[in-house]
Specification:
Largest sheet: 5 strands, mixed
Strand content: 15-25%
Radius of gyration: 18 Å
Number of strands: 5
Shape: globular
CATH architecture: 3-Layer(aba) Sandwich
Distance between the termini: 51 Å
Length: 197
Amino acid sequence: MAPKDEDELVDMMFTATHERHPTFIRYPRGPAEGVPIKDQPKLIEIGKAEIVQSFSNSGGRKVVLFPLGNMMNLGRKVAAQLATEGYDVAVINPRFAKPLDAGATEFFARAAELVVTFEDHVLMGGYGSAVLELFDEKRVTTPVLRIGWPDQFIEHGTSVDDLRKKYGLTVENIISKVKAEFPESTAVQRRRDLAIA
């Protein structure tokens, strides 16, 4: 399990105490998101993702974001920016790297033109890799853009924000990568801009 904020962390810890087998919760160091924690935690269904934002069917290119754990804040910022640029964006909180919510992941992937996974760890063998394996098994052909850390030594002694900038885990870089997946959209927009000018 990977919580998006401290309130969900409490729910996951509460859920773990009700399980009859080992449970792993992954959360980052550093400050929390600052969200209020409810008085009574709730049980989370094992392997069930949370639909944070569904497609609006606005007519824009459909992109589904799967920001795992503490990447939700970054995912929301990316979703907001993409929406201002005409994309139709869904945001899913996966909650679980294992077991994956295969049903929700496949459903939104088949409805989208691009899937973007976010993870706060090395890409190789991570959450995005598990999504790719699921798509291979289910014959889902939607392209997948994986956002995460490279498989190399990441230096310490600097701020997490500085490291994210250095390794491209920023809103600007992710937006650029998403747009690169739709080169014809950029060309159409340029033609429209020229026509207006």
